[in-house]
Q: What sequence folds into this?
């Protein structure tokens, strides 16, 4: 039996995967470094965020949920900073 | 065919494709970047083989810090890259055939397994309660095969001595140059101020939880090493001269602590590296904490390379 | 065919690829990369042995896993030493082959005799 929470998981993780696919296609197809970085940040921010959101109902308690969210936050911070570093290096 | 098995087929094919690409790619820098990708894929393969401890080690050491070391080396060698030619076609063909033969031999070994798969898992699980640990891999590393782990620390220190000894005489006791990794840069400085608090907490958690869950001193120590390298690269903290006495004590603290606990086993328990009954878990956790600190310092200095300028106090 | 066998075949292919690179690629850093590829193929083989030895409620035999963890760390120290050797060797050959200013550099270094 599929509950509302399961539906949320399926929808959010599928949407996240869609961002991963779109970001990967962008990474392969975009012409220069800046646009490729743009594609990559969508994967990090939205794709991973949606996957984490979808997995939250299935986390083992509050601690597990916090771990999942902190994974996303750390990926956000490092993604943003590495993007800046790469963009500066090519300027 | 189930979905997980299809996923495994995809992972295995990607591993082979990426490994092959790494061998034929033009340009050393490109090959090193492929190596980092390969290491992360390999970590996924380890999770699929139910070896989460190994997956963490592979991601942290095999891909992360090795990738960083090789990236810096590739960047340094790029300025003076000489175009070297591949061996002639017959030699390439011959070595290809020989390597294919070795692969086929290994494949036959894989496809014709022993009737009863050899395993020490029941023995490890039967004796695990005596150590008080919950993670069987930690049990093997620190109780059943503790000598391997101790000697591995000695190997790390010997490798560091080897790296240091490549410095010219006049630079002995100097400071490793980390400038080759990245020029000072305000965003990097910001990163080096924001990330280390999280990283250090994570390293402590990883070391602590290693006793009962996947994790441990190796993975925690690697995270510590990377945090240290980050603050040194950004110029937030100055790299220490290798003649610094405190640094040298830090390097040997973990192995010496391990050795002392091992020697105490002669007096208090069954012999070398045996733990007195009931005290195994606390002793192992203390040793792991010491080792994590020493591993962090050793791995960081190994990645930093030999000293390249004199120490100016 | 199960996952363990699949990754076993994968490890055989990786060992072959790594060995091929080690023989064929002339650049020292590429040889180090190939050596690491060869090593990770061997580690993966151990992982397959561990997976097949799953028993006593564990997903995999812990002893080969511990050996692989030790192996990865030792392989890193070997890589670090090899990279330091390559960089030093390149520095010395550059000094010798550059000719121009080699004498003054030799005086400055005074250590590679």
A:
């Amino acid at each position: 039996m599929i509950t509302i929470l399961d539906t949320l998981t399926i929808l959010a993780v599928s949407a996240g995967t869609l961002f991963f696919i779109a970001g990967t296609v962008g990474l392969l197809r975009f012409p220069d470094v800046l646009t490729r970085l743009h594609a990559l940040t969508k994967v990090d921010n939205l794709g991973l965020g949606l996957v984490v959101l979808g997995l939250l109902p299935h986390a083992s308690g509050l601690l597990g949920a916090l771990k999942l969210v902190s994974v996303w936050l750390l990926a956000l911070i490092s993604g943003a900073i590495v993007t800046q570093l790469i963009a500066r290096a090519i300027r | 065919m189930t979905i997980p098995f299809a996923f495994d087929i995809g992972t295995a094919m990607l591993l082979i494709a990426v490994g092959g690409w790494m061998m034929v790619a033009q340009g050393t820098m490109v090959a090193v970047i492929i190596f980092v990708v390969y290491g992360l894929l390999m970590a996924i393969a380890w999770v699929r083989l139910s070896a989460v401890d190994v997956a963490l080690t592979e991601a942290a050491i095999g891909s992360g810090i090795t990738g960083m070391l090789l990236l810096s080396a590739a960047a340094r060698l790029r300025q003076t890259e000489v175009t070297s030619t591949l061996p002639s076609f017959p030699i390439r063909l011959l070595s290809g055939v020989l390597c294919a033969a070795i692969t086929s031999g290994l494949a036959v070994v894989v496809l014709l397994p022993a009737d009863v798969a050899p395993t020490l898992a029941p023995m490890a699980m039967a004796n695990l309660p005596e150590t008080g640990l919950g993670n069987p891999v930690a049990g093997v590393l620190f109780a059943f095969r503790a000598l391997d782990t101790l000697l591995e620390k000695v190997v790390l220190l010997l490798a560091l001595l080897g790296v240091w000894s490549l410095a010219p005489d006049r630079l002995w006791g100097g400071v490793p140059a980390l400038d080759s990794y990245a020029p000072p840069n305000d965003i990097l400085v910001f990163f080096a101020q924001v990330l280390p608090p999280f990283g250090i907490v994570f390293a402590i958690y990883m070391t602590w939880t290693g006793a009962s869950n996947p994790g441990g001193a190796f993975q925690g120590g690697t995270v510590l090493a990377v945090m240290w390298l980050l603050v040194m690269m950004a110029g937030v903290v100055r790299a220490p001269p290798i003649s610094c006495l405190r640094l040298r004590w830090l390097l040997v603290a973990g192995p010496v602590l391990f050795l002392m606990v091992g020697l105490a086993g002669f007096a208090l328990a069954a012999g070398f590296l045996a733990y007195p009954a009931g005290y195994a878990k606390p002793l192992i956790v203390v040793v792991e904490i010491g080792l994590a600190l020493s591993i962090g310092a050793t791995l960081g200095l190994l990645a930093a390379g030999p000293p390249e300028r004199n120490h100016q106090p | 065919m199960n996952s363990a066998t699949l990754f076993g075949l994968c490890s055989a292919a990786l060992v072959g690829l790594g060995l091929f690179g080690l023989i064929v690629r002339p650049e020292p850093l590429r040889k180090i990369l190939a050596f690491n590829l060869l090593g990770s193929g061997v580690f993966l083989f151990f992982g397959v042995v561990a997976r097949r030895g799953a028993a006593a409620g564990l997903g995999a035999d812990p002893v080969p896993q511990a050996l692989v963890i030790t192996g990865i760390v030792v392989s890193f120290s070997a890589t670090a030493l090899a990279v330091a050797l390559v960089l030093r060797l390149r520095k010395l050959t550059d000094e010798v082959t550059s000719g121009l200013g080699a004498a003054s550099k030799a005086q400055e270094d005074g250590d590679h005799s």
